[in-house]
Every structure is written in C-alpha cells, then in structure tokens.
Specification:
There is one protein chain. With 444 residues, the protein is of the alpha/beta class. The protein has helices at residues 4-14, 26-29, 51-58, 60-74, 88-96, 113-121, 141-150, 181-187, 231-237, 240-250, 256-260, 262-265, 272-280, 287-291, 314-327, 345-348, 352-358; strands at 37-41, 78-84, 100-104, 107-108, 136-140, 158-165, 171-176, 196-200, 207-209, 222-227, 350-351, 370-373, 379-383, 393-394, 401-402, 407-410, 420-421, 426-431, 435-440. The radius of gyration is 22 Å and the shape is globular. It starts with a helix and ends with a strand. The mean pLDDT is 93.
Length: 444
C-alpha cells in the first residue's frame, strides 16, 4: 500500500494534472482531508469525444486497481466510477474488473463536477465551494490512468486524443505531448471540407482555432474539425465587445438562458439573463449579480447553440466578466445557504443526441477506433504552462540531450503548478519562456 505522502510526491514528480481539460494539478486536489468517496468521472459528456470510453474498455483492470489504491491512500471508504447508463460495454468491463459503477442519465452537461456529484451521490457542492466540502474528490478517467502510471514512476508524456469531425480517418490516438496539431490531422488523412476550423477540446467548451499552429498538451481531449461558416464557429469567435453591444438592443430578457442553466437547475443562485442586463448597462450593475458569474460552469447551454433565441452567448460574457473581476482582486465567495433543485429540472435536461442535432454534429458516429501510438513526428514543442497555475521554469538548456520522461521544467518554489517532461528522446533545439522545442533522435 502506498501512503498519502508517497502518493502526493509521486503524482507531483510525474506532473499529473486534470486530463479532462481543466488542468488543475492533481497532487493539490488529492491533499484534501475528510474525503469519504473517491469519484472517477467517466461521463465524457461533450459530443465527439471518445478517449475515456477507450480507456474504460481496454484498461479497466488497471483503472479499478488504481482507483482502490488512490482511495485507500487518501482515506476514502469508497471508489466509484460514474458513467452514462448507455455506456454498456464500459460498465460491463469495469464491473467485471471489480469496480463499483454508478450509471447516470445521458444528458449534457452531466460531466460537470457539481452536476456529477449531485446526480450520482445526491450531494450538492455549496455555491463557491469545492467537492471536498461534501467529502468528495473527483478525477477524470485519464487522470486516474496517469495516477496509476505515476505510482509506477512514469511521468505524463503522452495524451489520448480524439480526432473527429470533418477528417478522412477519425479515431483515438495516443499522442506524445508537444506534437503539432497539423501533424495529427495529416496522419488522419487531412480534412474533408474547405475553410475548416479546429476545436481544441469539445465543441461546447473547447478553444476554437483558425489554424493548426498549436500542440497537444496534457489537457487536449480532442481535435474536432468543423466548417468555418457553422454556428459553432460564429458563436465562439464573435468578439465579446460586439456581443455586449448586441445585448443592448437584442437581448429581450426572455429568461431562456436562466431556465436551462445547469447550475441554476440544481439550486445555484445564477441568472444569466440578469448578468447580460448588468453587462449591457454596467452603470446600473449590481455587484452581487456580477459576482454570481463565478458560479457559471461555462457549459454553453445558455448560448444561441441551445437557449438564446437572439443568438447571443451569456457564457462568453461570463468568461470575460470573471476575468475582469479577478483582475480587480474580486474572488468567488463561499455561500452556505439552503439550495433546492428546480422542480422543472428533469423536464429541461438536454439529451446528448438532441445536443448533437442542435449543433450540427449528429452525422458523426458514436464510436471511433483506436489508432494506436502516434509516431509520425520529427520534433515536439512542450509548453511550460499546461495546467492551472504558474508556468514552469526551465531545467534544460539548448543543445542538451533529453530522454523521454526527463524533466524539462518545474513550477517555481511554492507556486501552484506541475512539472513537465520530454515526450521523446531528442536534442533541445530551443528554450523559451513558452516552452522547449525538441528534435527527435532515433535511439534504435
């Protein structure tokens, strides 16, 4: 059995962060005391992402064994996997391996930690609070996989990535961190449309990019190719300044964004339509309304992709508002109050299949093959910031030979962060504030 201190040390040295997209350093999350339930989030609720499903089928015994060991180390009495009830093969694989599985309904955004805990355990994380306040720690499936490897002294050097959408040969790949997205798309046979845009992550919460000049990082869950003239690209790339101007004359305060807000439906005091009004007429803004933006999970149901009839995006307004408030030193506030689920919640949930139709992705399959280890690369660029917190300080210099798994940088002493490692054997071509470029060297 590994002790908690030994686990935290191994996880920090391996550079494990939230692999679902958030990138929070996992060694910090696992420090929590008073945890009775360790939850593994296998919902993977964003459309066209399938990497966690692959892991739950093919690495089920490793995941179950790792979950038990982590739960024991952090003092949790229970380790449970939470999956959509429609994931029949994955549920069977995990249960056959001896894991406890809680199936939940198939809707978006069931993968949000607050929603997940409420749905699976019946516990509600307080406003502005953390899951540890209700005795829970949540890790993504791939994060759990990396935890198991960390306990075997293996650092995070590769990422499971779904490549889907308008590409010739979509699939799930195991990709060395730092591989350029252009190389990965090329390996999938290239795109099948003109004027493609690329989503780094899922279509509802990912980053939209016009070009392929980005690399796979620890938080890259998928690369999805969509048409440049799609509603997805329109909503996610429109400047927020233009959106706010539109809100002054287009927002009709119909309340639809608030009616479908996933956090509002479980009892949070979050009203996106009130935030839109406050931002459009900021001289009349109520600070308590503005601060409620911190409660937003940014699931994107409030936008014109689903709720807004005037084709606005309260989500993107909330993103900017939270950034402004943080710059001004305003922080989320923990609110302990009685919260009641909206009585209409069950009737306002959005099934995943309907979401796919709404955003124009229903033509793509529910399953993709595993393509294996990605090998078609000459160099990688490993960023120093692949996590929430401070960028790493370099631990190598130009001209150094580095082996796969070798540390390239550590976060500053005492700062929130996670170490980064080389994903290949090679020679350091350059070291910059943003990261390290490494040329591959064949050791065979």
């Amino acid at each position: 059995m590994i002790s908690k201190d030994e686990l935290l040390k191994a996880v920090f040295e391996a550079g494990v962060v939230g692999a679902g997209g958030a990138g929070f350093p996992t060694h910090v999350k696992l420090k929590a005391d008073g945890i009775d339930t360790y939850v593994i989030n296998g919902v993977e609720c964003e459309p066209l992402l399938f990497k966690d499903k692959h892991l739950m089928r093919e690495e089920s015994q490793f995941l179950v064994d790792t979950a038990r060991e982590v739960a024991e180390a952090i003092g949790a009495k229970r380790a449970v996997f939470v999956l959509k009830e429609k994931y029949k093969k994955e549920i069977e694989s995990l249960r056959k391996a001896g894991g406890e599985v809680i199936p939940i309904r198939d809707y978006y955004p069931a993968g949000d930690e607050v929603i997940l805990i409420r749905e699976a355990l019946g516990r509600l994380v307080p406003e502005g609070g953390l899951p540890l306040m209700v005795g829970v720690v949540v890790n993504n499936v791939e994060t759990l996989y990396n935890l198991g490897r960390a306990m075997d002294s293996k650092s995070v050097t590769h990422k499971f990535v779904t490549v889907s959408g308008y590409v010739k040969e979509p699939g799930v790949w195991l990709v060395p961190i730092g591989v350029y997205a252009s190389s990965l798309i090329r390996a999938c046979g290239g795109v099948t449309i003109e004027n493609p845009w690329y989503i780094d992550g899922g279509p509802m919460t990912g980053k939209y990019r016009k070009d392929l000049d980005f690399v796979v990082s620890k938080t890259t869950s998928g690369i999805i190719v969509v048409p440049g003239d799609s509603a997805l690209v329109k909503y996610e790339t429109m400047p927020v300044e233009i959106m706010l101007k539109q809100a002054k004359y287009a927002c009709i305060q119909c309340n639809q964004c608030t009616l479908v807000c996933s956090r509002k439906l479980v009892g949070y005091d979050l009203k996106p339509h009130m935030i839109m009004r406050a931002m459009a007429y900021n001289k009349l803004a109520d600070i308590s309304v503005l601060k409620s933006a911190f409660l937003c999970s940014e699931c994107n149901l409030c936008s014109g992709l689903h709720a807004c009839p005037m084709q606005l995006s309260p989500r993107r307004v909330n993103q900017q508002l939270k950034a402004i408030l943080r710059q001004q030193g305003v922080k989320p506030e923990f609110q302990k109050r009685e919260m009641k689920q909206d009585p209409m919640r069950d009737y306002r949930l959005l099934p995943s299949s309907r979401l796919k139709r709404r955003i124009g992705l229903d033509k793509f399959p529910e399953e993709l093959p595993f393509r294996g280890l990605f090998k078609d690369l000459d160099e990688v660029f490993v960023p120093f910031l692949q996590h929430i917190g401070r960028p790493c300080a370099p631990a190598v210099s130009e001209g150094d030979f580095v082996a796969a798994g070798q540390v390239l940088g550590f976060p500053p002493e005492g700062a929130l962060g996670a170490a980064v490692h080389s994903s290949i054997d090679g020679v350091v071509l350059s070291v910059a504030a943003e990261g390290v470029k490494i040329k591959k060297v064949d050791m065979e």
